[in-house]
Each structure stands twice: as structure tokens, then as C-alpha cells.
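Kindly review both lines to help learners:
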Amino acid sequence: MSDRPNLPEFSVTELSAVLKRTVEDAFPFVRVRGEISGLKFHSSGHVYFDLKDDKAVLNAVIWKGAARSLSVRPQAGLEVVCTGRVSTYAGSSRYQLIVEQVELAGLGALMAMLEERKKKLAAEGLFDASRKKRLPFLPEVIGVVTSPTGAVIRDIMHRLEARFPRRVLLWPVAVQGERAAGEIAAAIRGFARFPQAGLPRPDVLIVARGGGSIEDLMAFNEEIVVRAVADCGIPVISAVGHETDTTLIDFAADVRAPTPTAAAELAVPVRTELIAQTLDFERRLLRSFARSMEDRRLALRQLVRVLPRADQLFAQPRQRFDLTAERLGHALRRNLEAHRRTFIAAASLLRPTGLKNRLSLGSERTRMLTLRLVRSHRVRLAGFQSRLGALSRVLDGVSHHAVLARGFALVRGADGALRRRAAALVAGEWLSLTFADGTAPAVAGDGGHKPKSAGKKTPGNQGDLF
């Protein structure tokens, strides 16, 4: 028996309804400031998130109709002021804020820190478009950096199997927690150092994780992970969170995928589409070839109709050949007749009497020309001899030999130089005296004495000038 029989008895549903009315009556319209965390966009169109500060967390929900009319789209990490009413959710015994309007209140501390880090890394050039590498069209090996136990790897494998099966190397890492950033960076650098232990080097890397709050995705905002992605020599696809989630590795990666499944779609083409495209190219090639052959066949038929028949084509040349052959026979006969007449005329000139007469005339003419040649030669020779005699007399007139014949002599010193004056002589000097009939040596004496009689001088005898 109860100690308080007068207390009313409620069922769980009744008590939940009373609490709901009490809360809604007490807070029909409120404005709450806080930081958005755990943001989820449901497929129904409703938006679920938490408003938090440094001491408390408040669940919030935006119904589909209100979500379409919001001027500010909710984003994780944003500090906002939400206007709405407070209500309860009996299914989990919790109270929540039914948001009708969202206004910006400023960036939260976490978002401010991430924005500052983003600016720093961007200033270093880690996000430059020039660093981006192109994805291979059909990679042989795909490296995946993610948790081995989550749904992400299964989604990726299923998508690859459906599109174009490829070899996949999984590097298991923690995607949340204190050790997650170090393991993710080590995995990216490890793949870049392949091949090792017989494992092939991946052609493309997928760094993936499922959705979560901004705190859950913080490992992919760490500087060590961003630098590992930027320095990786293998093209990297970033597939962290859902489409609305953004991390810093999205800016450093070569390609950003909105979801892990989309990353698998970016990594490989659809095999069936490639086969269909190849078959389509083959059909187009065959059609083009057939059309080209048909066009050429048609053109050939048209040319055949334009060209004359073979007998017509060669009729005129054959006629010209016959006429030319007939004219050639007549021309040969006329030429032969003309040469025959010329030969007969020449033969008539070769009779013995005529030849003798011509020989006699030729002999007489040769004799007369010979006589004229002899007379002309004698006349020219006499003229040359007369001219030569005159020149000889002129030469004798100017020659020093004529002077020597008149009693003069040439005096030369021992050095062969002429001595033209007595002052040029030196007593005792050997001299050479050239006369008309020869040369004789002499010695220069003293100019003050008379020369001694030396008798008749002959060439080769020595004499003095005394």
C-alpha cells in the first residue's frame, strides 16, 4: 500500500506529454547562441545538429519546410544565433530546440583556428593549382587509406567492383582520435615509398572517411596530414565526410570527392561504358569505311560513264599511225631517189679524163704557188738582213769596244769597280786594265814619278803605271 495514496499516477507517455507542454509553454520563443556541431542533413530534408558552448550542449532540429527558407546554411563550426521554441522528444527523453531561423554570430574558436591554419598553408603554396596532378585514366593499383572496420572501405570496394575491378591495397589507420593524424600521414608517405616487399606502387591514393562532426574530422585538418598529401608523388583523392564537410586535405589533394563512393567513381571509369564506347567507335569506323568505299565506287562509276570506250579511245591514234606509216614510206622512196640522183651526178664527175684535167690544173697551180713562196721568202729575208746590218752598225757605234780600239782602256780596281779619275787611285793598288784585245794587270804608282818603260804588254803580263 502506497504511503501517498493521493498522488496522481502517470504513465510514461502521459508524463512525457505533460513535460512537453510545460517546456513549450515556458519557452515558446527563444534565441540561443552557440557553435554548430554534429551537423547532419537527413535524406528527408530535416537538419539535425547540436548547439554547444564550453559547458553545455543543446540538441537542435530544423524541419524540412524551415530549412528551405533559411538565409544562412548551417555549417559545422559556425557560431550562430538560432531562433525557435524549446520542445522535448519523448522517444529519447531529451529536450531540443526547434529552429525556425539561423543567424551568424561569428566564427567559433575551432573554425578560427582552422581558418588561420588554412591561410598559413596556402601562403606556402600547398594549395596551388600548379601542384595538382592528373589522375590516371585506368589505374592498375589503387591505394586506400581508411579504417578497415568502417563502411567506407566496403563502399569503395563495392563501387570499384561495379565500375571496373582493380587491385586495391588497404593501409588501415585510425580515422579519429589522438593517433589518427600520425597514422594517416605515415600511410600516405608509406605508399609514396613503394614498391616494398614485392608490393606494387599504387597509381592513385584515396584518403577516405565517413561523415562526422568537425571534431571527428579534425585528424584530416592536422598540418602533418596536409603536408603529407601535398608532398605525395602519387595523385591523391580526398574523400572525407559527406558533401558538405570540408577539411584542409581537400585543398591539398589533387582531386576532392564529396563522398568515398564518389572517390571510387573518380578513380576508375565504367568498364561497360568503355566497352560500349569501343564498340560504338568500331561501328562508326566500319560505317565510315563502308560509306567511303561506296562514295569511291560511285565516283568510279561516274568516271566510267564519262570516259569513252577503248575502241573509241584508240581509234584516232590508230588512224594517225596508219597515215604516218604511209607518209613515211613515200618519204623514204623520195629520199632514196634524191640520193640516187646526187650519187649519179657525183659519179659523172669521177671519170678518168676529167680527173686528169683536174690533176693537171692542180699541179700547175701548186708549182706557181711554190715559186711565189720562194720569191716572197727571199725578199723578206733580204729585208731582215739589211735591217740587222743597220742595227749592228748602230750597236758598234755606241759600244765601248770601238772606244777601246781607238787606244783607250778601262781601269778597274781589285773590287771590280771602275776607276774614272786619277784621284781615286791609291799607290800600290792592284788594277785591271781592259784593252780592245784583252786584259792586263797593273799596280798604281806614285803620281809624282814618271812611269818606267814596260815594253809591249800582252794579255796576262804584269805591268806598272810608272
